[in-house]
Amino acid sequence: MELLPRIAKGLEEGDDELVRSLAGEALAAGVSAADVLNNGLLAGMAVIGERFRLREIFLPDVLLAAKAMYAGLDVLRPRLADENVPPRAKIVIGSVRGDLHDIGKNLVGIMLKGAGFDVIDLGHDVPPETFVETAIASGATVVGMSALLTTTMPRMKDVVDLLRAREPSGRIRTIVGGAPVTAEFARAIGADGWAFDAGSAVARVTALLEAR
After folding, report:
1. 145: closest CA among 168, 97, 113, 177?
2. In the structure, how many helices (H) and strands (E) does the chain have?
3. C-beta neighbour count of 165 within 10 angstroms
């Protein structure tokens, strides 16, 4: 079995030590870091994301796969920098002000990183100004907001409004999600997109960027 499919399979099985070892072996064999990333790590995470979306696997399986992915990335990171391999895009995520829940948001971050995005995770209870200032300063193209409480959902509109005021060109897109958040609510507050779960977040973000 070739190295890259073995890396993908090891990641799917959550075997971080195997993925770390195989990633190093692939680089030593002359495989480019970009190939290991795209055809090994990201290929494996794509399978994990699809299986999670179909409810064939669950959160513990995703977390094990993510641990394996990070182990591989630790090996690749210096070589990726040498090869000037850019991430797909930079995304800022966080739970809005007043909301201390972040399990779902953390899972979205894992899925986005697993799809090759550069994710800046601001954590929970994030003020609108922090979302907007971080996105502008970092050159991010998407801001993702999460809320688990109906009482904190209005804070999403605060972020959307502030972003439009600070960055009227529309260069930075917004996407919202969380248990009580609906597509209708997203449209009502002027968000560019909505994801109903972590499994759909990557597809929604990708669609937003392709529509630019």
Report:
1. 177
2. 10, 5
3. 9
CATH annotation of 90-210: 3.40.50.280
Give the strand order in the sheet containing 90-95: 118-121, 90-95, 142-146, 173-177, 193-195
| Burial class for 197, CB neighbours closer than 10 Å (0-12, 13-18, 19+) | middle
Over residues 61-120, the pLDDT tens digits come to: 999 999 999 999 999 999 998 888 888 899 999 999 999 988 889 999 999 998 889 999
Phi, psi of 105 (to 5 degrees): -65, -40
d(CA 177, CA 80): 32
Domain 3-82 superfamily per CATH? Methionine synthase domain (1.10.1240.10)
Q: Tell me the two tokens of residue 22.
A: 């195989």
What is the pTM assigned to this prediction? 0.85
Question: How is the chain split into domains, by residue range?
Answer: 3-82, 90-210
Give the DSSP H or E segment for 142: strand 142-146
